């Protein structure tokens, strides 16, 4: 296991987002009492709040987040996201393209914020590994498409998110889906059409992502074992958002957070 992981690290190009706690210039620490100009004690808030002053998560609320996106602030949720429109540009897996493991240092004090559906949420990277998000998180499972403002919340609960470009090689995509479904309960699988052609398959966890051209099952399993359930919030219950859900995660692995990828139940 140890040897395997050493191999895993050397074949990857490790990119460290090195930010020391003291240098952190991110917003919204727990001790901040002004959030984008709104005082935390502003009585105009209609939605229930948690004890950090954030909108309560996991509660459907028509004034805040009912699982819909009436203003379209999380973008188009339709087929543009999950259909490969030009079949000629199917991306072929290339074993010579090395995988990239990107690890972000997230200060312990960092606390992401919950925004209602009337405010947009922006990320400064294409594939965020942490950040602000919507109060409702996705039910675990495979979707045609889930916007990042939703699955970033899943990351905060220790989940694994699999992203693939709709033009990625179908065989590679299916191999990875199968591995994930045989590894854990808390996963979200969705297409994501902004991934680059060179590495059109990406696994994300809180603070880490693995970008792949070709799926290496051992590397994927090592990533899941190392990064799943390492997030700050230990929330294991299912989400509430289920737009475009194709197949809910099997509850077979629910409560098995300490025995990830129990071989040989995944078959490649
Ligand atoms: C968004 O909706 C919430 C809940 O209804 C409200 O408290 C907040 O003031 C609204 N924010 C904006 C920018 O409209």
Explained architecture:
- This protein has 268 residues and is of the alpha/beta class.
- The chain has one domain.
- It is built from four helices and ten strands, in the order H-E-E-E-E-E-H-E-H-E-E-E-H-E.
- Strands 1-4-9-8-6-7-5-10 form an eight-stranded mixed beta sheet. Strands 2-3 form a two-stranded antiparallel ribbon.
- Helix 3 links the parallel strand 6 and strand 7.
- Helix 3 crosses helix 4.
- The longest helix has 12 residues.
- The protein is globular.
- The two termini are 20 Å apart.
- The N terminus is likely disordered.
- The site of 2-acetamido-2-deoxy-beta-D-glucopyranose has 9 residues, from loops.
List keywords for this structure.
two-stranded antiparallel sheet; single chain; binds 2-acetamido-2-deoxy-beta-D-glucopyranose; disordered N terminus; alpha/beta
């Amino acid at each position: 296991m140890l040897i395997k992981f050493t191999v895993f690290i050397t074949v990857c190009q490790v990119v460290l987002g090195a930010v020391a706690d003291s240098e952190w210039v991110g917003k919204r620490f727990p001790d901040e009492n002004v959030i984008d100009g709104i005082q935390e004690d502003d009585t105009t808030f209609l939605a229930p709040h948690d004890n950090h002053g954030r909108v309560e998560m996991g509660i459907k609320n028509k004034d805040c987040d009912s699982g819909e996106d009436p203003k379209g602030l999380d973008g188009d949720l339709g087929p543009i996201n999950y259909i490969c429109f030009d079949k000629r540009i199917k991306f072929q897996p290339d074993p010579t393209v090395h995988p990239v493991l990107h690890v972000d240092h997230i200060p312990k004090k960092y606390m992401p914020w919950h925004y209602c559906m009337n405010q947009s949420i922006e990320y400064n990277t294409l594939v965020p590994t942490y950040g602000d998000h919507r109060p409702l998180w996705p039910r675990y499972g495979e979707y045609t498409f889930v916007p990042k403002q939703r699955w970033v919340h899943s990351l905060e609960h220790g989940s694994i998110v699999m992203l693939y470009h709709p033009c990625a090689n179908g065989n590679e995509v299916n191999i990875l889906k199968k591995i994930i479904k045989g590894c854990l309960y808390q996963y979200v699988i969705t297409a994501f059409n902004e991934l680059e052609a060179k590495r059109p398959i990406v696994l994300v966890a809180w603070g880490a992502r693995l970008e792949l051209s070709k799926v290496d099952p051992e590397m994927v399993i090592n990533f899941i074992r190392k990064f799943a359930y390492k997030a700050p919030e230990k929330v294991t219950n299912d989400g509430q958002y289920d737009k475009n859900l194709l197949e809910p995660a099997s509850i077979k692995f629910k409560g098995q957070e300490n025995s990830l990828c129990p071989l040989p139940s995944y078959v490649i």
